[in-house]
Amino acid sequence: MERSEQLNFCKVCLNKKRDFKRGLVCNLTDQPASFETECAEFKRDYDVVLVEDTSVEQKTETGNTDILYGSLWFFGGLIATFANFGYIFWGAIVFGGIQMFKGLNERFKL
User: Within 10 Å of residue 106's Cβ, how many Cβ atoms?
Assistant: First the structure.
């Protein structure tokens, strides 16, 4: 088993310890993971999983909000420009477009 696969177990284990030089190590052995299929001392930390799920939900909500407000500014700027009020609403178009694409990236890059 590769180190990246072992870390998938270690990230959600209660027996993990962070070492600045070696990364995640086992708190019981003070060594990096050395198991091949699964760790005999693995104890799942359910708080970590809940935090990750909340993070995904927050990203989705933030992305949706950015898409909504960015679209309103972008298309509002375009409509106001084409309505020929005598002004070109570059700020609304540019920054609304940036916010809209930032929201699209956040929403679909989970």
Answer: 19
Instruction: Give the span between the Cα atoms of 15 and 66, in whole angstroms.
Output: 39
Which segments of 6-90 are extended strands (E)? 16-19, 23-26
pLDDT one-digit tens code per residue, 64-73: 999 999 999 9
Contact 89, 107 (CB under 8 A): no
The CA-to-CA distance between both ends of the chain, in Å, stands at: 26
Tokens coding 66: 């950015």
Residue 43's nearest CA partner among 17, 14, 86 is 14
Pair 99, 66: CB distance under 8 Å: yes
Question: What pTM does this model have?
Answer: 0.51
Only one residue has tokens 């420009």, namely: 81
Q: Give backbone dihedrals phi and psi of 36, rounded to 5 degrees, phi first.
A: -100, -45
